[in-house]
Write the structure tokens for this entry.
Amino acid sequence: MADGTHDLDAVLERAAAWLVDGRGVAFATVVRTWGSSPRPAGSKLVCTDTGEFIGSVSGGCIEAAVITEAIAMLAGERGAGVLSFGVADETAWEVGLACGGKIEVFIEVASPARLRDLRDARAQKRAVVVLTPLREDAARPSDDTEALREPIARALRTDEAIVVETEDGAMLVEPHNPPLRLILVGAVHVAAPLAQMARASGFAVTVVDPRRAWATKDRFPHDELVTAWPDVALEQLRIDARTAIVALTHDPKLDDPALVAAMKSPAFYIGCLGSKKTHAARRDRLGAQLDAKALDRLHGPVGLDIGAKSPAEIAVSILAEIIAALRGRDPRARPA
């Protein structure tokens, strides 16, 4: 259980391989959590009728209990259904709930057709929603059901699985959005640690730099490299609302065309590296091509003010601000 533990695509791939081998396969999905839980709703574990498994719904003996129940279901000893785990603070560490809390996990037999459709959608980077009745005898509804339209839209918008109460009982609404993307304009010193941290945070990273000596696989072995001029590259990359763009070169010949192109896109975050003085000059230059509303979308100087000095520290500050924008948080606000 290593690299694939929290990787949904790895979980789905292994499940498909087990089904091809003729194994009995069950899925366990976190449907609701209360208090402190290490895995969010929508997290999955898949196991076989012999107890092999991949994925995670929490940790410790919760996994053991879930797998035991899944094996019993595959053997016909119980039906699909929801398991509840409530843990007191003093015993929480023993079962993987760091500060106590409650988790509900739904267990069901894997459907080859649903698994195939979901894998296809993820491979094609299409946004889809999986609807799962949490009552065994309930029919699976259509995603155009009037009562589910708003919850489906909300789940896709927040990228979080939710449970909706319907006339036929509780329904798990699971969004599967295309991957988050981070486009870095400039294969500079900050780009390498930022790309590494972003990948670890779930972003697919693209580095754009026409300077081929900078944008090399030796420096960015795990990232997509584009050596077209930045404005041309951004038009080709089909930016969507799950894309963040950061200009890093300090060179107006590269950064400015990229930023103008970025402003015409639905990217949720657009940032540019440089001091306050540099950013003021940048706004003056771009003011000839963009209105004030567009310019106000720019995060500059990019990153949270944490006193960052090294490239890695600067990367931390940038990624933190990107995540705050993604989650709709004001990083300057402190909780009451």
